[in-house]
Amino acid sequence: MIFCAYPRLVFNHEREDILGHHDAPVRCIEYSYATGQVISGSWDRTLKCWDPRGASSQERTLLGTYTQPERVYSLSLVDNRVVVATAGRHVNIYDLRNMSQPEQRRNSSLKYQTRCVRCYPNGTGYSLSSVEGRVAMEFFDLSEAGQSKKYAFKCHRKSEAGMDIVYPVNTIAFHPIYGTFATGGCDGFVNVWDGNNKKRLYQYSKYPTSIAALSFSRDGRLLAVASSYTFEEGDKLHEPDAIFVRSVNEVEVKPKPKAYPIHAT
């Protein structure tokens, strides 16, 4: 287990050791099964790759430091690719086998601040969420045919007194078996989507406060939901932080012919 700290990384194996340091808060950490590396992203505008396999902290190695255009907000891995989303709507795509420079440099197709990036389990692209209550579906293939498949859609919104209230989409998690995905928003809801057929499959009952993080178990049978106020409305009284682990029924995540449609925008 790896913990984010300020501004260091801690590698836990029934003891506490320091894996390494950043110069500002560590925003995100991922483990690459393809290369055995730990990849960390920080508000110090760097991405760092580490080899955690040494028996002692002296033997654990910083493999490289890669400067980013802005503070790192989120990162995600699939196969040998790592996608880094930063402030300023920048997206850098690297090949872990050659980190000398990004293989692609992009800007988010969403207009406002990025909250989360997650790669598709099949390795063909990635999804982005933002503070504007939208999710974008992107593809690595830069050909005209590849780029024609991308789209964005609205979610985590409600109408009240004739006004459209928009909630940030803080987190995305892909189901490891079916490739469908869940989104969590500051409205306290978790929605499950079929991206291929552009349909909403399911909405879970409202949680006590903002959804800060989501994660499916490796077999897809459990979903961990972190309910934690993310201060989108400033400092106010709120429900205490909590983590809910719920069983996932196939009907909630398996694609089906008829479901609530996603309206691409």
UniProtKB/TrEMBL annotation:
<feature type="repeat" description="WD">
    <location>
        <begin position="169"/>
        <end position="203"/>
    </location>
</feature>
<protein>
    <recommendedName>
        <fullName>Mitotic checkpoint protein BUB3</fullName>
    </recommendedName>
</protein>
<keyword id="KW-0853">WD repeat</keyword>
<feature type="repeat" description="WD">
    <location>
        <begin position="19"/>
        <end position="51"/>
    </location>
</feature>
<dbReference type="InterPro" id="IPR015943">
    <property type="entry name" value="WD40/YVTN_repeat-like_dom_sf"/>
</dbReference>
<dbReference type="Pfam" id="PF00400">
    <property type="entry name" value="WD40"/>
</dbReference>
<dbReference type="InterPro" id="IPR036322">
    <property type="entry name" value="WD40_repeat_dom_sf"/>
</dbReference>
<keyword id="KW-0677">Repeat</keyword>
<dbReference type="InterPro" id="IPR001680">
    <property type="entry name" value="WD40_rpt"/>
</dbReference>
